[in-house]
Amino acid sequence: MHALLEVSGLRKVYEGSGRRVEAVRDLTFTVDAGELVCLVGPSGCGKTTLLKCVAGLLNPTAGEVLLGGRPVSGPPPGMAVVFQEYGRSLFPWMRVRDNVELPLKQKKLSRSRRRELVDDALTSVGLSDAAGAYPWQLSGGMQQRVAIARALAYEPDVLLMDEPFAAVDAQTRADLEDLVRGLWRERGITILFVTHDIDEAVYLGERVLILSASPTVVQEQLKVDLPVERDQLHTRVAPRFAELRTHVYEQIQAAKRGVPLSKD
Amino acid sequence: MSGGLKGVLLRLLFVVSLPLVLVTAWWLASDDSTDVYWPPLRTILTAFPDVWTGERLRADVLPSVLRLLAGYTSAAVVGLALGTVIGSYRRVRAVCEPVLEFLRAVPPPVLVPVIMLFAGIGDTMKIAVIASGCVWPILLNTVEGVRAVDSVMSETARSYGITGTARLRNVVLRSASPQIFAGLRQALSIGIILMVISEMFAASNGLGFTIVQFQRGFAIPDMWTGILVLGLLGFALSVVFRLVERRVLGWYHGLRASSRRS
Amino acid sequence: MKDKQLEDARPRSVSPTSGRPGLTNAALGAAGLAGFLAVWEAVPRLGLVEDDFFPPVSRVADALATELSDDTFWTALGDTLTGWAVGLLIAVTAGILTGVVIAVVPYLREATASTIEFLRPIPSVALIPLAVLLYGTELQSVLLLVVYASFWQILIQTLYGVQDVDPVAEETARSYGLGPWARVRHVLWPTALPYVMTGVRLAAAVALILAVTAELVIGAPGLGARIAVAQTSQAVPEMYALVVVTGVLGLLINVGARTVERRALAWHQSVRGEVAV
Question: How near does any CA of chain B get to the CA of A167, in Å?
Fold first, then answer.
């Protein structure tokens, strides 16, 4: 398989009034086409900075991001982002359908094609009945589904998700995790999923990248050798799941303490 | 609230009872009034249809309203355009802010004599006076609204390639619209004030002119009818404004109601 | 009266700023002001606008200096400020009292809503002819217009504030047997205060507009009347100087009112915070 997304030597330093904050020091990793990769790290470790650099929303201080071999210098057309703050990411003055459709209008797609994509995306996330509602009429979980539908309809090469379920309750969160797994399997999309939740990272990912505390480097890359078929009830109690999550947990604790890293 | 017909009737009672009481009180209190300045309400109401004939509406009310509309619209266009530019660029905003704060603070009516120097006493003067008074609340509120566009919303727009005019139309102006409407509403009341006093200064027609004529000619009941007409006009314009606002900002009121409930 | 709501409802964006924004902003603002004055000086000097209509800023500054050394100017300023302050005081007192009474007495709110909605948009300048007949150029003319215009700002904001009272707090106070007056003092007033302060800020600006208007149109003594005299006597630089003075006055009132409002808000939030802990 060939790498769809390549991040090499990424570094980001924020320059403030006489203050320099090195948020990301040196990050190198790749994501293959069709892969679901989870990024997990201690809170405040620059996950969001990293994601914004990958999305082309921030310019890195050094290093580069390649999408399909092309350097990312601004938001590339082949990328869609699902933010954590669904309430601020959906436009409250537009109905659900218009929210999903707006980016497609920018792509200059025909009306019938747009309609098709919007209907398909809303059906995929189980919201075909809510097309005429305003986002704020829906529950938090449903709003995040709308944001996911908007990203799906955009037909991105890579879907970036920035702690998308951090602000919803546990039950909804489990449903949404299964939704993402399901969409990934059905559609074969490439997903880079950022989270601070270890269980979520292990449950969702085919591979987990563990980040160190800020200034961030990749502490470890871990292949998740759980079966492709996963469900909340059985996967989470499987012994292998427990081993993996313990391993990730220890790595993150080590990262927090700032233990010298063994480069592999 | 209790449902059905009873609730509706109760609400209707609340809406009409106090106005009825007040009007009746005015009627009774003034009925045998001999004070020239406080004529009986009966006299005022009898004078009303004689004074505000179709001809007078056309010759005095219509020009006033048209001037108000022209001034208000130009203020809205200029205020929105400049406000969007100033609000979008931090440095431009920093440069303009003190000057704008000062210009906004000048009480708009003192612009009447200044603008008369340039524009004489014709319609142009009145429209310019109205526009130059209305523009500040619209401009400053647009600046505030555009400045405060949510960072996550802008990033969402950027990441989906929504840029340029599409961003302006679908994101920036919509997000700023509650604030812009607050400015438009303030501007409307200032506009009515300026419409009236620019006509009191120098005019040959218009509501403000006519009412002052009545007062100078000691046609007191007629003057009272003029005050009533101005009141009705102010009320009617605010109703129209509210209708437009309800339509354009329906989402905003819904959003607020839903966030208050949770 | 809208901005209070807006502040509550809208998420504020926090954008990372670089450098020392306070200092650079002040410098940029000063540059903007200097540019504004330079343009004002240059436009009439270059003959772009006839300087009879639009005298250069230096000549306006001269006129302003003359004004400032004139006793009658200070009397006029005092007259304007008196009309403004007395009118505002009456409006604030009446507005708050009316608002609280409407809120406390059952059904009064519903019964007065339509009347308020009708009376509020009536432009206060409609009362000018009446004021002229009743009071001529006396202070009362100014007060009539100022009070009518600013009263509604205060009343509406007070009503908004009272509406915001947490029903749970109200119920709690009731269940502990607090009487109506105690409930007004301890529950209703603290909640409504920030709204009332916003109303005072808006009313202070409106009151100045109406005070100057009354002087300008009716001829009651004050800065407005002085502007009218300057206009009729073709003293154009003096007229501009007086317009600048009203602008500075308005600016000081805005800044002052905003500071008072912010204080009241800060106090309010800190008190709330202590209660919550």
Answer: 15
Region C32-48 average pLDDT: 92
Judged by a CB distance cut-off of 8 A, whether residue A15 touches chain C is: yes
Structural tokens at position B27 = 């009627």
Q: CA separation (Å) from A126 to A96, A129, A175, A183, C95?
A: 13, 8, 11, 12, 53
* Domains of chain C, residue spans: 59-276
- CB of B170 within 8 Å of any CB in chain A? yes
Check pLDDT > 50 for residue B171.
yes
- Across the interface, of A16, A87, A88, the residue whose CB is closest to C18 is A16
pTM attached to this predicted model: 0.86
Q: B 232-261 residues with CB below 8 A of A?
A: 251-252, 254-255, 258-259
Chain B partners within 8 Å of C53 (Cβ): 117-118
Among A124, A182, A194, CA closest to A154: A124
Q: Hey, what domains does chain B have and what are their CATH numbers?
A: 42-261 (1.10.3720.10)
Decide if pLDDT at A192 tops 50: yes
Distance in angstroms (rounded) separating the CA atoms of residues B52 and B224: 12
Q: Compute the nearest-CA separation of C262 from chain B (Å).
A: 18
Cβ-nearest to B98 among C32, C129, C209 = C32
Q: Supply the ipTM of this predicted assembly.
A: 0.87
Higher pLDDT, B261 or B103: B103
Query: In this predicted structure, what is the pLDDT of residue A41?
Result: 84
CATH homologous superfamily of C59-276 equals: MetI-like (1.10.3720.10)
More confident residue, B176 or C178: B176
CB atoms B175 and A103 under 8 Å: no
As given in the structure block, the two tokens for residue C213 are 């208007």
Cα–Cα distance measured from residue B129 to residue B122, given in angstroms and rounded to the nearest whole number:
11
Q: Classify domain A1-78+157-166+182-264 by CATH number.
A: 3.40.50.300
Residue C1 in this model has a pLDDT that exceeds 70: no
Q: Nearest-CA residue of chain B relative to A101? A: B160
Residue C16: the pLDDT is 43
Which partners does chain B have (≥3 C-beta pairs < 8 Å)? A, C
Alpha carbons B139 and B183: distance in angstroms, whole number: 8
pLDDT for the residue A107: 87
CB distance from A49 to chain B under 8 Å? no
Measured between CA atoms, the residue of chain B closest to residue A92 is B251
Q: Encode pLDDT of C141-155 as tens digits.
A: 999 999 999 999 999
